[in-house]
Structure to design on (384 residues):
């Protein structure tokens, strides 16, 4: 592996994904992110964003944490995980994936994660977890400290993760031999891509149709090379990944959600299924169920500033009469909407779409409006 020895000599050495050399060879601009050296862009964020919307963008997300939660049967393993998350894991069907959050005793979000169940009955009792890179060590320690006898966590540090996103992603995988054309959104299964065995979900974090592909580190470069050889595929950096997820109204942990934010405040109530809302049994359930019943004091909303100036994270949000009502948590230029877009939290009384607000951008008031999320409609494949 090619390593920047000047960086490696710093107090906290950066880590490298199995695809680091490929990024450098392609001329990517590399930046530190969540402890890893990661590509922020190749040819430019706007061009990469547009290509993902039009064809297929390939992202290296191998810095994410992967692990398997293993128990004697599905109900036992699901119950162990449900002690820490508010989603209904017991009802997760074979070959399906679900989004949820680790919560603290106040209902705040320690991290968000994806949980997958194999379609194979022989794998019952095993759940695959994907967590955020910056949180993975804490997440796995938190999980292991709470597991009952008979359920164990097996980290999958020997696996890389690639995301192929965009309307032509499915065609690319089919051309490489993967039988994925009819998979609906949030399917989780095995597939052979260019002769390589992979664990695949029809999911992603761009708002586009696409797939996340878990593969052994030893096969990551071969899989990457097979994918980028397709004319519809271009490598995409973290810059466009961020602009795509922002247009999609998707939360970034540590910015739009954190330990002081509940799923209700974050407008993630859809990720807490009916049984869990009624029964509770997860950390902070008293706070979350009270907010479900009576409303949260603040809510995550979309914001469209007037003009062309973007409102960045930390921008103060005021009511039109000048009272502080919230803060922007993500903001920037939306290439698809051709203008600035932002997300943030406002007091619940100001959260309705159409509410006029003022943003304090570099000390100057900027007119804006609360809008419904997402800014760009999702194009997930729901099936025929």
């Amino acid at each position: 592996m090619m390593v920047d020895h000047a960086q490696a000599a710093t107090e906290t050495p950066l880590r490298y994904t199995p695809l680091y050399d490929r990024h450098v060879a392609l001329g990517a601009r590399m930046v530190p992110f969540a402890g890893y050296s990661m590509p922020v862009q190749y040819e430019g964020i706007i061009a990469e964003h547009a290509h993902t919307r039009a064809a297929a963008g390939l992202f290296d997300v191998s810095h994410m944490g992967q692990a398997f939660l293993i128990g004697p049967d599905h109900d036992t393993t699901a119950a162990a995980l449900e002690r820490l998350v508010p989603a209904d894991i017991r009802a997760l069907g074979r070959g399906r994936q679900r989004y949820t959050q680790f919560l603290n005793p106040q209902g705040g979000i320690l991290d968000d994660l994806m949980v997958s169940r194999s379609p194979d009955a022989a794998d019952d009792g095993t759940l695959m977890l994907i967590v955020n890179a910056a949180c993975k060590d804490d997440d796995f320690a938190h999980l292991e400290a709470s597991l009952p006898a008979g359920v164990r966590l097996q980290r999958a540090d020997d696996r890389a993760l690639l995301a192929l996103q965009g309307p032509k992603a499915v065609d690319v995988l089919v051309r490489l031999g993967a039988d994925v054309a009819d998979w609906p959104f949030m399917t989780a299964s095995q597939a052979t891509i260019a002769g390589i065995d992979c664990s695949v979900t029809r999911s992603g974090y761009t708002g586009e149709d696409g797939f996340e592909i878990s593969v052994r580190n030893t096969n990551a470069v071969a899989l990457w090379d097979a994918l980028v050889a397709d004319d519809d595929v271009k490598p995409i950096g973290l810059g466009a990944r961020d602009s795509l997820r922002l247009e999609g109204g998707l939360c970034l942990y540590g910015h739009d959600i954190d330990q002081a934010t509940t799923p209700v405040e974050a407008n993630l109530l859809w990720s807490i299924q009916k049984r869990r809302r009624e029964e509770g049994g997860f950390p902070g359930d008293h706070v979350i169920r009270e907010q479900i019943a009576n409303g949260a004091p603040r809510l995550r909303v979309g914001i469209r500033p007037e003009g062309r100036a973007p409102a960045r994270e930390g921008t103060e949000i005021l009511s039109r009469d000048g009272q502080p009502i919230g803060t922007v948590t993500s903001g920037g230029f939306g290439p698809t909407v051709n203008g600035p877009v932002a997300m943030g939290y406002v007091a619940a009384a100001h959260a309705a779409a159409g509410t006029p607000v003022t943003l304090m951008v570099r000390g100057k008031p900027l007119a804006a409006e609360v809008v419904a999320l997402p800014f760009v409609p999702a194009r997930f494949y729901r099936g025929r």
